[in-house]
């Protein structure tokens, strides 16, 4: 997922699994979509009966049965992300994610990771602006043990100054590794800090260097006590298990954790009206090929009026979803002035989110010309709309990506987890294919006209530093 | 093979080859029994939770072999295949040819030009990908089973009749060129090229996979056609298929896809090469971190010591969280976020490589800690407990990581063919790991880790030798 920070860098995938998963945006229940698009195969899949229930202590549970391999993905999502941090404490959510791997009253540091290693499972965690998630992929027989560990560290962590200090050094190295050594990442941070004038999304998930350096044990303990509780968590179990089994195990483990303090609704500062066009430029000696990206504030699935977020998903697909998109065809193929052109909409977000296009030049093409050409494509949709054929093709691409996603258990688990952790419901996930299907060409035109306003945007330029 | 991954440290230009180590199975003689089926359990010993994976060798009427896992739980078919050769086959002066060719398979084939082909592919609901790696050109397609006829037909013309029209050749070349130029001043990319030439000398592995500005400029469509004919031939082909298709239907598709290709590849000989160790490479660049990599000798998958080497690598730095390097460098000292080791295997070269990025002002300390861990492991070997834990990990992780999705199963099955393993390998693998004893891993640890490594540091200060 974009914008998430794992505790360890995940292994890369094999050559041909790099099939374009970038189109995947939302998930669905297998049958719901197949019913609509590919009736003959419906009977082929009898998985997909997703079940949810609530434990007495307020913990939400979602079970996604998937029996095609004897593995299970166990995830706990906390409804706490970097955008919930107190002023001056940037990075605490992600830093705390790291600390969750330390000793508890019942388990020494490393017991959990060793237990996972003995099964040959995988374990990791990640933080983004709206949530923090911890997960293990293991054999079904180890599920109860994982739930035990995860329930234990929800409340019983023991933090010492030494542990906090060393892990803070690790996170500082992580920031240097991810951001400081990467001009593109430095620019992205500055673009976020400019696009968002009020919303906490302006602060990087990993935190600002000088604020991470100040985080201490007292901050960590306060954060833990406030946010790590069953009533602020969602359990997602996907894989070779039945809901009944998960329920029994969840009650035995998570069910024993007392309900935590009541949390106020996540009402955070939101954006004022956008009135200006802003630009951010990074000139760096390590850059030899320039690029730009333009960002707009747009509603997310949670904040949008009905149908708007779905229309934005389709707009991103039509405008810059791949090599058949308008930007790519116009700038890369027909005019031959760019080597890459794409668009992206991050719909799963608690507050308003961003829609971005990015372009890199071919040969001596000037960024200003590319920006004008890309802007013209955006304006053309806002003015003339999209054709029914291209809309249908875009829907088809989204749909088949979701069908392909059935093969990726962790992907489906992530969709449910991220939707529920950003205020969505199971129904939102289940009905998404149908809502996508109902989007009209007029709706796509309307969101382009309403939100992709040239004068209300933020553009970031990455520019080579020339010798003189 | 779980830990036999290339994470782009040795070869950041061509990262992540999980599918075995690119060893060819040029003379693979699979049993010519039509639809020989071997049903086995993925996880022996977990009786209550096992799922049967139905793996079979399908041999088409015209003699094309594929490993098939039939699985009807989702309406999807995934096909993966590789032709031996890869970027190591780029002719002198035409470096980057394989990579450029791989970028052109959806840019026009048969009667269809680029635009027409892509429209049809989109309409067929399929996703196709080609990639050139050091030892092979990989292709794949993922399709909806109800539209498989149209999808396979497009794959057929892509494989057999690529057009290499001038316009898409120039366009894709410009994209590659841009990515080369983009890295010209990127310190880690610069260092990677320096490192390659230091450890591989003039061997083809020392060359940049994407080519250079000069070599790309000299490639013409006729070069691509000739290279295609030389590489896309039946004796260098390995195929795996997973999903909603049965053996009979696949058999017909295999003939359509591959039977009309030439019988034999025309491969230039590529010598085996041991990386040149025992040398320092220091690249000065004003960065907030120093990145370090250390190369030791490696061991290939057909060597009797391969499993011992895998276990040693896991214990050293392959196991996430629990490896010795993770513990000493990150957990105890907070010196790095990323620290790992990988057993990197290519068809003609093996190495065990340790990588990390660390605070520039403590790089010497980090390097010292790494070398101390390695020295101890070389001298005294792992403990019995560590060995047992790493065996359990290695056995369990294979099922969880290698067989968890259609694409990872297909990748694994291709890797097994490249490593010349039989169809029963997945069943036999746990015993191969179990039988490694403590004395053997100690001997292997000593053999690999006592060597004086090749070391590279990229960062602001070069006083890291300590």
TrEMBL record, chain B:
Pfam families: Peptidase_M16, Peptidase_M16_C. The chain crosses the membrane at residues 28-46. GO terms for molecular function: metal ion binding. It comes from Mesorhizobium waimense. This is Insulinase family protein. Gene3D superfamilies: Metalloenzyme, LuxS/M16 peptidase-like. It comes from the Bacteria. InterPro entries: Metalloenz_LuxS/M16 (IPR011249), MPP/UQCRC_Complex (IPR050361), Pept_M16_N (IPR011765), Peptidase_M16_C (IPR007863). The keyword Ribosomal protein does not apply. Residues 221-392 form the Peptidase M16 C-terminal domain. Keywords: Membrane, Transmembrane, Transmembrane helix. Residues 69-207 form the Peptidase M16 N-terminal domain.
């Amino acid at each position: 997922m974009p914008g998430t920070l794992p505790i360890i860098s995940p292994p890369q995938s094999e050559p041909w699994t790099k099939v374009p998963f970038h189109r995947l945006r939302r998930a669905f229940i297998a049958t719901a979509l197949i019913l609509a698009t590919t009736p003959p195969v419906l009977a082929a899949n009898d998985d997909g009966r997703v079940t949810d229930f609530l434990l007495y202590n307020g913990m939400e549970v979602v079970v996604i049965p998937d029996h095609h391999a004897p593995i299970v993905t166990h995830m706990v999502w906390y409804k706490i992300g970097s955008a919930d941090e107190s002023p001056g404490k940037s990075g605490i959510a992600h830093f705390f994610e790291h600390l969750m791997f330390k000793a508890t009253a019942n388990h020494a540091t490393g017991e959990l990771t060793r237990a996972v290693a003995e099964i040959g499972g995988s374990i990791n965690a990640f933080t983004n602006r709206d949530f923090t998630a911890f997960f293990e992929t293991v054999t079904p027989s180890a599920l109860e043990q994982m739930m035990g560990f995860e329930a234990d560290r929800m409340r019983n962590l023991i933090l010492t100054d030494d542990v906090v200090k060393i892990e803070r050094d690790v996170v500082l190295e992580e920031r240097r590794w991810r951001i400081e050594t990467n001009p593109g990442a430095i620019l992205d941070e500055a673009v976020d800090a400019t696009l968002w004038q009020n919303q906490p999304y302006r602060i990087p998930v990993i935190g600002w260097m000088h604020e991470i350096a100040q985080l201490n044990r007292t901050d960590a303990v306060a954060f833990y006590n406030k946010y790590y509780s069953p009533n602020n968590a969602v359990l997602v179990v996907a894989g070779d298990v039945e809901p009944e089994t998960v329920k029994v195990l969840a009650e035995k483990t998570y069910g024993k954790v007392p309900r935590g303090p009541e949390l106020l609704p996540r009402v955070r500062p939101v954006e004022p009206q956008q009135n200006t066009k802003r630009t951010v430029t990074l000139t760096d000696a390590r850059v030899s090929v320039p690029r730009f990206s333009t960002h707009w504030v747009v509603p997310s699935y949670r904040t949008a009026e009905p149908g708007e977020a779905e229309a934005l998903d389709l707009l991103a697909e039509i405008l810059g979803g791949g090599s058949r998109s308008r930007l790519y065809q116009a700038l890369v193929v027909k005019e031959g002035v760019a080597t890459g052109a794409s668009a992206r909409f991050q719909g799963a977000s608690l507050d308003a989110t961003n829609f971005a296009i990015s372009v890199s030049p071919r040969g001596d093409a000037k960024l200003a010309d590319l920006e004008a050409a890309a802007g013209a494509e955006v304006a053309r949709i806002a003015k003339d709309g999209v054709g029914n054929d291209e809309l249908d093709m875009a829907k088809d691409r989204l749909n088949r990506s979701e069908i392909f996603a059935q093969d990726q258990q962790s992907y489906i688990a992530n969709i449910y987890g991220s939707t529920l952790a950003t205020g969505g419901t199971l129904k939102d996930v289940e009905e998404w294919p149908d809502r996508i299907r109902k989007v009209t060409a007029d709706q796509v035109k309307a969101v382009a006209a309403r939100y992709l306003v040239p004068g209300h945007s933020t553009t970031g330029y990455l520019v080579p530093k020339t010798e003189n | 093979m779980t830990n036999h991954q290339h994470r782009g440290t040795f070869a950041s230009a061509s990262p992540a080859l999980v599918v075995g180590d690119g060893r060819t199975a040029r003379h693979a003689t699979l049993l010519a029994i039509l639809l020989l089926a071997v049903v086995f359990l993925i996880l022996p010993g977990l009786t209550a939770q096992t799922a049967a994976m139905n793996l079979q060798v399908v041999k088409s009427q015209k003699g094309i072999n594929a490993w098939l896992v039939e699985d009807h739980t989702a309406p999807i078919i995934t096909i993966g295949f590789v032709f031996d050769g890869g970027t190591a086959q780029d002719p002198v002066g035409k470096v980057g040819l394989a990579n450029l060719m791989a970028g052109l398979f959806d840019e026009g084939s048969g009667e269809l030009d680029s635009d027409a082909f892509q429209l049809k592919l989109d309409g067929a609901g399929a996703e196709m990908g080609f990639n050139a790696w050091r030892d092979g050109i990989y292709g794949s397609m993922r399709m909806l089973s109800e539209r498989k006829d149209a999808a396979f037909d497009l794959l057929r013309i892509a494989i057999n009749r690529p057009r290499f029209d001038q316009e898409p050749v120039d366009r894709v070349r410009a994209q590659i060129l841009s990515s080369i130029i983009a890295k010209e001043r990127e310190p880690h990319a610069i260092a990677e090229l320096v490192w390659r030439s230091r450890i591989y000398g003039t061997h083809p592995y020392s060359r940049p996979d994407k080519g250079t500005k000069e070599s790309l400029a000299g490639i013409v469509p006729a070069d691509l056609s000739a290279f295609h004919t030389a590489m896309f031939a039946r004796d260098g082909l390995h195929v795996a298929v997973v999903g909603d298709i049965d053996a009979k239907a696949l058999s017909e598709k295999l003939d359509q896809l591959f039977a009309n290709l030439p019988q034999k590849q025309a491969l230039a000989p590529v010598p085996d090469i041991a990386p040149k160790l025992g040398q320092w490479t220091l690249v000065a660049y004003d960065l907030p971190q120093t990145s370090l990599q250390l190369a030791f000798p490696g061991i290939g998958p057909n060597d009797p010591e391969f499993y011992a080497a895998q276990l040693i690598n896991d214990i050293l730095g392959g196991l996430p969280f629990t490896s010795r390097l993770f513990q000493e460098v990150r957990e105890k000292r907070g010196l790095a976020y990323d620290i790992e080791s990988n057993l990197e295997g290519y068809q003609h070269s093996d190495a065990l490589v340790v990588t990390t990025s660390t605070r520039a002002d403590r790089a010497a300390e980090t390097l010292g800690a790494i070398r101390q861990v390695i020295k101890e492991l070389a001298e005294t070997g792992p403990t019995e407990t560590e060995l047992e834990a790493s065996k359990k990990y290695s056995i369990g992780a294979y099922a969880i990581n290698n067989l968890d999705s259609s694409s990872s199963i297909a990748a694994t099955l291709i890797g097994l063919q490249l490593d010349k393993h039989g169809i029963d390998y997945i069943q036999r693998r746990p015993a191969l790991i179990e039988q490694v004893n403590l004395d053997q891993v100690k001997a292997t640890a000593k053999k690999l880790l006592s060597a004086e490594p090749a070391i590279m540091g990229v960062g602001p200060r070069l006083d890291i030798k300590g």
